[in-house]
Amino acid sequence: ALVNNNQIQEATKLPKKTSIKKTQSIYFLYEMKLTYFDLRGVAERSRYLLAIAGVDYEDERFSFKFGTPGDFSTIIRPEFDQAKASGRLDISLGKVPLLETDDGKIIPQSKSIERYIAKKYGMMGATDEEAAYIDALAEHQRDAQDAYKAAKAKDQANEYLTTTLPETLQKVEKSLSKSGPFLNGEKVCLADVCFYYFLTQFFDDKEAVANAVATAPRIKSAVEAVGALSAVKKWEQTRPDTIF
């Protein structure tokens, strides 16, 4: 959101939890700042959550490119290197993402950021028990992703996609305690975003994943419900085009 100099007095009337950043003669109003590379990666779920919540945030992206395509030993990332050398990233142990809140607090670690955003904007259920359940579903998704990485390292990716993934989704589906369209009922939650991103954008073999998802109709319905959200559609249409 933008305001000019003549409107700055109005900007100062905004709620206390809205921060004001100035660039030359333009004032940018942000609720928070998310810092990561100019990639989707482990920050993308947080970006989806912020999009769904309608949060006006600063999406700080460190440039990222390869000296030799595909060779991670040749990565060029000058802004990240500068931030790390300055000590700015010490709180996150020299890593990104990190989130700066409206009152200047810094939150490191991608999963902590996701949980913070989800809780702050009503995507962690209505009770402590629902929050724990949603968190558990999100951890199931992380376990499934880690299992794929392990299978791929052993050249067993095809077996994972045809056997392990559908079995995992079916087991998760048995634990779902409410009707949909989302995993925890009528309202989108953190776990929905985790499974949506995992099942629609993590894998290259889209057909094999679609076949696996088809064996778990409740999860399939939740994934489709997330994809149908106008905020999700808008984010996917307008987000920066990155290498991955």
Summarize the structure.
The protein is of the alpha+beta class and 244 residues long. It has helices spanning 8-11, 44-53, 78-86, 110-120, 128-153, 157-175, 190-202, 206-214, 217-228, 230-238; strands at 2-3, 19-23, 26-30, 33-37, 58-62, 65-66, 75-76, 98-100, 106-108.
Helix content: 40-55%
Helical segment count = 10
- Main sheet overview: 4 strands, mixed
**SSE run:** EHEEEHEEEHEEHHHHHHH
The span between the termini is: 27 Å
Quantity of strands, as a count:
9
Poorly predicted residue ranges:
1-28
Instruction: Give the rounded overall mean pLDDT.
Output: 90
Based on CA inertia axes, which overall geometry fits?
A: globular
Query: What share of the residues does DSSP label as strand, in percent?
Result: 5-15%
Computed Rg? 20 Å
Structural class: alpha+beta
- Give, in spatial order, the strands making up the sheet with the most strands: 5-4-8-9
How does this model look, in words?
The chain has 244 residues and is an alpha+beta fold. 50% of the residues lie in helices and 13% in strands. The chain contains 10 helices and 9 strands. The protein has helices at 8-11, 44-53, 78-86, 110-120, 128-153, 157-175, 190-202, 206-214, 217-228, 230-238; strands at residues 2-3, 19-23, 26-30, 33-37, 58-62, 65-66, 75-76, 98-100, 106-108. The strands form 3 sheets. Strands 5-4-8-9 form a 4-stranded mixed beta sheet. The chain has a 3-stranded antiparallel beta sheet with strand order 1-3-2, with no helix packed on it. It is globular and about 50 Å long.
Task: List the main descriptive attributes of the protein structure presented here.
alpha+beta; four-stranded mixed beta sheet; 244 residues; three-stranded antiparallel beta sheet
